[in-house]
Amino acid sequence: MNMQNLMAQAQKMQKDIMKKKEELNNQEFIGKSQWVEVTFNGDKKLLKVNITADAQIDDKEMLEDMIKIAIDDAMKKIDDKTEEVMGVYGNSLNGLF
Question: What is the set of domains in the chain, with CATH numbers?
Answer without folding.
Answer: 3-96 (3.30.1310.10)
